[in-house]
Amino acid sequence: MSDMHRETPQRDIPKITPHLAGAVRRVRVEDAEHSEVLAELRSAENARLEMMKEALKPILAQVPEEIDLFDTGLVPGEHPRLFIDMLAYIEMARDRRSYRFLQDTRHGRVTLAESETIDGMLEAVTDYIARRMVEREKALVSDQTVEDAARRLVANAAPKAAVTEAPIAPLMTSPAPRRRSFFVGALIAFVNTLGVLAVLFLLGIGAWVVWALASPLVMAALDQVNR
Questions:
Q1: pTM score, two decimals?
Q2: What is the 3-state secondary structure (H, E, C) of 167-205?
Q3: E strand or H helix at 92, and its extent?
């Protein structure tokens, strides 16, 4: 019985030490595979956007030459974008299959359309181009209306200006300015004369005060000399 209660000796379990160099190689391989996948996805996005750009060329060719609103260009990067103008562009959705047509506005980014086919996106972009052209025409008409109103205002004001200028011309040739200049000159001469008289008066008062203070001293000095 005593042998049964004896503790059996535990065996030493070998410990497994992780191999760091092997882990680094494994991570590098995974990272390279991930980079290859991302590169392939970006390449696929660029290819699909290039196809979209080629499909838009016949539509943009119909835009009149004097309208310079649209300047398409494919900008590569982490998220490639096909710009239609300065505000609107096309990019691929998260599934890498659907096209997304976006526009930056004062209230944020707005999704104008989303389609898995080039034809569906082409229709949305065509409508956008047409809408921008109509907005441009409205802006030009508004500017022309304002310009015409300004011209009419100037034309109506011209006869009134001529009528008001007619009676003013004789006044400019009248001798009133000469009379005014004569009176101004006389007034200035009078003020100058008063100034000179005031200075002389002050000098006289000053001399009298000095004599009144100095005369007793002078008289006393003369009396001492006579003695």
A1: 0.49
A2: CHHHHHHCCHHHHHHHHHHHHHHHHHHHHHHHHHHHHHH
A3: strand 88-92
